[in-house]
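A reminder from the course coordinator: this example appears on the midterm review sheet, so study it carefully.

Given structure:
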């Protein structure tokens, strides 16, 4: 049926150069692949779960990663927050199910911003923005969201590929409004690329082809494209040494520019480098499920989300039935249980994605019959070029660690700044609803009054950020208008941005 299938004689499959214009598969096979995508995501996430941000570098083979029989059920029972990759996805899947393929971005923003689950990085910054009237796409724009290059949408974009089998441009279309709720530039591209790979995985089983063809959806001028192209090139140069490719990726692309936790830190949550580790798993895994999720895990960084993505993409290729039973053990124990913060089980998720895939197939000129579907495949087209933090480079991180009353005036020389903070969060059993109101003075004048909710789900991630200032000397000071002794505000650090990297000087 497909160019990548082995011949009847058992010869090695020929490498595809293009897809057929139409692909017909049974509905049973379509459902099997959708189930494989969701299950592969959950298994990969579970496998990498114990390592997430435990190791700040490559996880070598001396560190054993176990796979006990009831591992998935254990996380359901004891640490269900591990599956943020999945229940975040389901927020969007549910809106599509309720309101159709043309659901407005406001519906997704409402569902996302009012959900009961905790969020981090770009997601939480966007939630705070939306709750304060900064709506999509401004909620994800880099000048409103210092975490806009982070991994968030990348781990949530599976839905778009699963609902658009073989229709790669349709998949990227369904990433646009939702992806820009919380991300921009490289952060959005992470979701675009993942969705494109999922989509292609329905109509070809050649991993290298999927990785390369999906990259055509990303503008070549972008840093994101250049990083992925480097990984593909280095894989070709070192096909048996993923550790060497890892080292080259880390050296060239391993510096986090935007995230206030990642800049000059060991926690690199940037979409760009974590996407690199997804496709390293796919390329070096060579279609083997274990090798795929293991390499993506051992690359480190966000080492549960990355194998979730590579495992999900390979899960579509293999189909649910093709995932080895060893890795599927435990799925049956949880498939009828609702994921945390939802009333949706995996079995419901399978069906909703299947329903949506049928609608998308029909919308994009395919056919849905009683027993099979015919998909009109699409040639990948690049989405628009956008890059966050252009002309900005972090040059220094100053640790302050003082209460606002003792912080005084902070001086810096540059064109941008981000201040991080710490404030005790309200306990779940005794919330106060306190919201600190902090006046921020820039160069002697009141610049803005920021609100810092003590409620964890409503919190603002960064105390203050400002970009595109005139390059030069600036001063920032803070004043709490409504101090509360139970919620003291501590200024933690200041990240300073200039227009280029700082020069190295030795005396």
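Designed residues:
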């Amino acid at each position: 049926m497909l160019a990548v299938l082995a011949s009847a004689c058992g010869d090695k499959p020929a490498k595809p150069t293009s897809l057929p214009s139409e692909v017909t598969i049974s509905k049973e096979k379509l459902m099997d692949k959708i189930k494989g995508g969701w299950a592969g995501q959950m298994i990969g996430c579970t496998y990498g779960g114990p390592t997430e941000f435990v190791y700040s570098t490559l996880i070598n083979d001396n560190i054993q990663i176990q796979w006990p029989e009831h591992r998935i059920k254990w996380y359901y029972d004891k640490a269900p927050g591990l599956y943020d990759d999945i229940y975040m996805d389901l927020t969007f899947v549910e809106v599509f199910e309720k309101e159709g393929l043309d659901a407005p971005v406001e519906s997704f923003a409402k569902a996302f911003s009012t959900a009961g689950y905790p969020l981090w990085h770009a997601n939480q910054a966007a939630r705070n923005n939306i709750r304060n009237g900064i709506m999509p796409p401004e909620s994800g724009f880099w000048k409103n969201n210092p975490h806009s290059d982070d991994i968030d949408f990348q781990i949530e974009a599976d839905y778009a590929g699963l609902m658009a089998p073989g229709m790669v441009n349709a998949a990227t279309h369904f990433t646009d409004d939702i992806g820009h709720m919380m991300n921009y530039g490289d952060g959005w591209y992470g979701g675009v690329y993942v969705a494109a790979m999922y989509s292609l995985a329905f109509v070809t089983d050649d991993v290298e082809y999927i990785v390369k063809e999906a990259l055509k959806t990303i503008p070549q001028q972008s840093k994101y494209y250049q990083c992925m192209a480097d990984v593909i090139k280095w894989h070709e140069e070192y096909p048996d040494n993923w550790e060497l490719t890892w080292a080259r990726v880390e050296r060239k692309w391993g510096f986090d520019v935007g995230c206030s936790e990642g800049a000059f830190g060991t926690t690199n949550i940037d979409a760009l480098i974590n996407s690199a580790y997804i496709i390293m798993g796919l390329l070096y895994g060579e279609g083997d499920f274990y090798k795929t999720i293991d390499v993506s895990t051992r690359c480190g960084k966000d080492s549960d989300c990355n194998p979730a993505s590579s495992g999900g993409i390979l899960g579509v290729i293999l189909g649910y039935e093709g995932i080895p039973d060893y890795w599927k053990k435990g799925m049956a124990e949880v498939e009828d249980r609702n994921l945390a913060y939802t009333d949706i089980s995996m079995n419901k998720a399978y069906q909703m994605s299947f329903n949506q895939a049928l609608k998308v197939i029909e919308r994009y000129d395919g056919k849905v019959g009683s027993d099979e579907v015919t998909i009109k495949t699409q040639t990948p087209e690049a989405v628009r070029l956008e890059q966050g933090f252009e002309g900005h480079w972090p040059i220094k991180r100053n640790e302050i660690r003082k209460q606002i009353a003792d912080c005084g005036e902070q001086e810096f020389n540059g064109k941008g700044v981000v201040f991080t903070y710490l404030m005790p969060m309200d306990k779940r059993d005794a919330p106060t609803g306190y919201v600190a109101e902090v006046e921020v003075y820039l160069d002697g004048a009141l610049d803005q009054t920021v609100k810092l909710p003590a409620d964890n789900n409503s919190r603002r991630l960064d105390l203050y950020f400002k970009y595109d200032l005139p390059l030069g000397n600036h001063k920032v000071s803070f004043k709490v208008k409504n101090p509360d002794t139970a919620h003291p505000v501590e200024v933690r650090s200041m990240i300073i941005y200039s227009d280029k990297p700082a020069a190295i000087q030795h005396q």
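The first helix runs from residue 27 to 48. Residues 22-376 form a domain with the ADP-ribosylglycohydrolase fold fold (CATH 1.10.4080.10).
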